[in-house]
Every structure is written in structure tokens, then in C-alpha cells.
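Hi R.,

As promised on Friday, here is the backbone we talked about, encoded as C-alpha cells. Could you run it through your design pipeline when you get a chance and send me back a sequence?
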């Protein structure tokens, strides 16, 4: 790619080593993982190896890893399963105001079937109002859904505390760990989390494969069909993608610390210099614990979409909010929930880095952002 890619929370490139691991499974090793013959057994063995690698990334038992087509499907399966276990009318879902569309829309679909939704607010800092979460949980709660790290701001929620709370109350917890997996340590052996959703394409694996990590006894199939995935999901497994997910998880486990520290250096310098050089520059969520690759910036009076367009023209790829809502042109619901300000929400621009970015890319981005803000401000009519 000729440009500078700072949109890794939308998706990451597939690392060459991961592509190399997948390639033989497109042509050379063609078996269906459910076939009894040697080619099938070879595919099955490779899928089970990948299951172990994904399990290791999150400290889970391999039998708890259910491969899906995406984190979105994993999240849908988690909600479907949790609601199957509490089918009573009057049941409720508790979620945060800053969840990804994949969670929000599952909850909205449940609401259309009569389930009550309770949305827990965040403070201006991005911190979750835990007290309200605690108060919202009741005997009617079917599932609590909280993201581990926010895709727009990188803010990390206190999942160990929330898991303990839900466990004490005997309520199911789903955690959207899509942006946390591979960026911060996750150890499900230590945490009472019922459902955890992750995705390969956020950690340098292929698109179109995710996983729901949950005890098989808590899962009810969303996709009916054959007996694949031990009866938890019908449909022939996408063997090459699963192999790629496994290798991506293996590398992420191995390199987690290095990736986190190298992106932190780049991200922190980007923030520091922009903050010093540009008047009216602010960082959403800056005082909260954050994943180290993400910064959500705003510049007073500068529309985020306009800035993204100017940077795009200079071959620097960033985004406003989530890629999943980028065609709706509505300002970030996350920054809106934090600040209550339509203006602030419209100014938000996300830079999401990776360990593949370099110091010189940060230097170039700083220069272009500085110039772009100056030029946009010079063309604005005085208030
Ligand atoms: N949850 C979060 C926090 C995300 O950032 C994303 C993707 O952007 C998803 C869920 C959906 O993941 P997938 O693209 O695998 O469906």
C-alpha cells in the first residue's frame, strides 16, 4: 500500500507469514474438516490446532472456542444463547452506551421481541458509570454486554470488576473483546466471563472469521444445519480462514508485549506533538486506561469527516468512528455518549496504529495534520 495506514481498528493487513500458513489449504490440502478420509482428517487436525491457538490467546479451554464467520456472528450467537436460557417476557439486556453496532443492533433486535434494554452511560472521560451498571442488574437480567476496549477511543473498561459483579449476581456476561484481543492480556481461566467475542481481522488474520468463546453448555446454535463445530454451528468450516486465525492468534500471543509497547511509543508521540503544536487539539478518553494503538482526536471547529477526506487525499488513512457506520454520516455515538455534544462528536477522528507503523510515518502524519488544520482554519469564515 502506498499510503500510511492508521485504520487498524477497522481492519489489519494479513501478515505474510499468516498468508503463507493459509495458502496450502486453498489448493494442496482440500479436505472438508468433517470428512472421514485422510484429506478430511488433515483439515480437521489443522482446524483443531487453530482452535488451540485461539484458545491460548484468551486463556480458554480449546473446547470453548466456536469458530464463526465474524465477531458479529459470535455476538449474535451469544445474545441468542443467553436469551434462550431466559425466555421469559420481561427479561432485560444491560449494555453500555458506547458498544459497537454489532452489539447495539443485537440488543435492538431483542427489544423488538419485547426484551427491555438498559443502557449504562459513560462519563465525559469515557469511564463507565459502574454504580449504574450495578444498580441496573436485577433478577430479570438475561445478559450484560460490555466491550473490553472501545473501538473508537481505545478506552478499556474494568472487565475483571464487571465479571465479578455479574458472577456474584448470577447474571450472564458477554464481553466484546474484538479490540482487546492481542492488545492486552486476556485470561479467561481467571475470569468468570460466560461469552467472549473476537475477530481474526483485527489481529492481522483474514477477514470473515471470528470466534465465540463460551462453555458449549451455554451455546445454542444460531445457524442450524450439519453437526459442524460440535453441533454449535451448521455449515462447512472455512478451513483456510480458521488456519489463518490460529496463526494470527499464535503470533499475537507471542508478540503481544512488543506490539503494545511499540505502538504506545508511536501513538504517544503523535498525541504529544499534535497537542503541543495545534491550538484547540484535544484527545477523547485521554485520562482513562486505553489500548496503546488508538487515539481519538478532535480539533476545535474542524469537522472530522472533512479532515479525514483531506488526509485521505494525502494518502493517510484514518477514520471517524467505526467502519461499520461510516456510510451513515452520523457523528460518533461514542463521543456523543461521552460529551453530550453534537459538535464534539462531529469533530472526532480516530488514528489506530499497529506495530507495522514507523517513526517516519508519524513524522509525516504530524506535518500533514498540522498543515491541514491550518489550511482548513484559514478558509473558515470568522464567527
Ligand atoms: N466489536 C467491535 C468492538 C469491533 O470493533 C468490531 C469491528 O469493527 C466488531 C465488533 C465486529 O467485528 P467483525 O467485523 O468481525 O464482525
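Update: got your reply. Pasting your designed sequence below so it's all in one thread:
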Amino acid at each position: 500500500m502506498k499510503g500510511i495506514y492508521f485504520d487498524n481498528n477497522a481492519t489489519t493487513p494479513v501478515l505474510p507469514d499468516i498468508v503463507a500458513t493459509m495458502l496450502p489449504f486453498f489448493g494442496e490440502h482440500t479436505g472438508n474438516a468433517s470428512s472421514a478420509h485422510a484429506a478430511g482428517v488433515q483439515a480437521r487436525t489443522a482446524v483443531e490446532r487453530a482452535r488451540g491457538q485461539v484458545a491460548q490467546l484468551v486463556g480458554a479451554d480449546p473446547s470453548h472456542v466456536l469458530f464463526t464467520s465474524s465477531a458479529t456472528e459470535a455476538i449474535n450467537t451469544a445474545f441468542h444463547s443467553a436469551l434462550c436460557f431466559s425466555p421469559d417476557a420481561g427479561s432485560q439486556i444491560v449494555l453500555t452506551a458506547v458498544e459497537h453496532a454489532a452489539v447495539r443492533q443485537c440488543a435492538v433486535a431483542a427489544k423488538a421481541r419485547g426484551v427491555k434494554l438498559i443502557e449504562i452511560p459513560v462519563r465525559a472521560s469515557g469511564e463507565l458509570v459502574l454504580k449504574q451498571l450495578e444498580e441496573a442488574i436485577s433478577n430479570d437480567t438475561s445478559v450484560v454486554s460490555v466491550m473490553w476496549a472501545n473501538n473508537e477511543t481505545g478506552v478499556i473498561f474494568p472487565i475483571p470488576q464487571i465479571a465479578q459483579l455479574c458472577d456474584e449476581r448470577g447474571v450472564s456476561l458477554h464481553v466484546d473483546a474484538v479490540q482487546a484481543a492481542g492488545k492486552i492480556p486476556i485470561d479467561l481461566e481467571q475470569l468468570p466471563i460466560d461469552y467472549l467475542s473476537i475477530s481474526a481481522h483485527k489481529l492481522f488474520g483474514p477477514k470473515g472469521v471470528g470466534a465465540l468463546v463460551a462453555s458449549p453448555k451455554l451455546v445454542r446454535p444460531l445457524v442450524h444445519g450439519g453437526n459442524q463445530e460440535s453441533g454449535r454451528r451448521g455449515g462447512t468450516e472455512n478451513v483456510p480462514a480458521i488456519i489463518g486465525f490460529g496463526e494470527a492468534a499464535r503470533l499475537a500471543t507471542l508478540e503481544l508485549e512488543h506490539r503494545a509497547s511499540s505502538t504506545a511509543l508511536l501513538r504517544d508521540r503523535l498525541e504529544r506533538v499534535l497537542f503541543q503544536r495545534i491550538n484547540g487539539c484535544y484527545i477523547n478518553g485521554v485520562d482513562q486506561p486505553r489500548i496503546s494503538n488508538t487515539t481519538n482526536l478532535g480539533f476545535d471547529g474542524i469537522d472530522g469527516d472533512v479532515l479525514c477526506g483531506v488526509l485521505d487525499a494525502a494518502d493517510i488513512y484514518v477514520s471517524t468512528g467505526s467502519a461499520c457506520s461510516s456510510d451513515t454520516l452520523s457523528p460518533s455515538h461514542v463521543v456523543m455518549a461521552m460529551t453530550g455534544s453534537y459538535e464534539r462528536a462531529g469533530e472526532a477522528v480516530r488514528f489506530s496504529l499497529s506495530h507495522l507503523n514507523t517513526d517516519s510515518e508519524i513524522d509525516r502524519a504530524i506535518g500533514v495534520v498540522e498543515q491541514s488544520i491550518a489550511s482548513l482554519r484559514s478558509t473558515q469564515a470568522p464567527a
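One thing I noticed while checking it: The mean pLDDT is 95.

Thanks again,
M.
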